[in-house]
Structure prediction request, 271 residues.
Amino acid sequence: MNKDSYIYPFRKNAKGTNTAEIYAERGDALERYIFDAVVWPYVKEQGEQAFVIDVGAGEGRYSQYFGRNAKSVMALEPDEHRCNKARENTASMAAAVECVQGTVADAQVGNDSADLVVNIHVLQHVHPDDATAILDFAARTVRSGGLFVLAFTKKTPLDEDWNMTWSENGRSHYVEVPEDVFRMVSGAHLPTVLPVRKLHADEILKELEHKGFAIEARQEYAPRFLGEKKKLQGIFFKWLYRNLSSPVFHKLINTVGYPLQEDIVVVARKK
Ligand SMILES: C[S@@+](CC[C@H](N)C(=O)[O-])C[C@H]1O[C@@H](n2cnc3c(N)ncnc32)[C@H](O)[C@@H]1O
Prediction:
């Protein structure tokens, strides 16, 4: 990737999506709840001397979150604007923070040097070769006993078929392109088109195990609301999503087994 000209599409919120404000906010609250409940207990155990690497840090919101108990943080972000935002947003952290404009190829870090590598909502947006490079980087840099926290968008049983999206005149467009076109477009890093390759969760988990990690925890979250197929159900759950607190909503959808949880977070420990 030519990081000097790389611009991540959609700058509307920190996560980088153009989702309507209310959903973005509620989505962030639900995600934060899940991370607090499922992921943080593992992270805390790495202690106050921990070295954290945040791959695809965006504006640094998860560098702040995962680095709050750590000694030092390296935030890797190829988009210059977002990297500068990450510098601003992490300036007052207790940990020593270094924001590097670039990808894993630009990180000057030794093997087995990190206690924690995090990669939050990056994998589905990048060229498949870049995704492999990120997983290889985690396998190389996380020390034995250290953790890799990976969150991504996964395929769901009722998925609609699209893997590219962009906005035009205030409208969002979603199209499905074949694998070879996906590779071309995601490799071209167009500033206006966001590739979204929904990944098979089990394949990624298997790959992590193959690369020397043991899966300690996994949690699906982020409900997608059903469209035409089950419209009433979708409207009902959307209403609940907007009106209930994140813990209550999460408990409810787990209890009824709401079928479309499209994001997943995985805590993997290096053997
Ligand atoms: C959806 S945003 C997530 C940002 C951040 N992790 C968060 O959750 O707030 C995806 C980020 O990945 C970055 N990115 C794109 N390609 C990348 C690559 N090959 N390596 C690392 N980061 C990349 C983008 O610039 C963007 O900031």
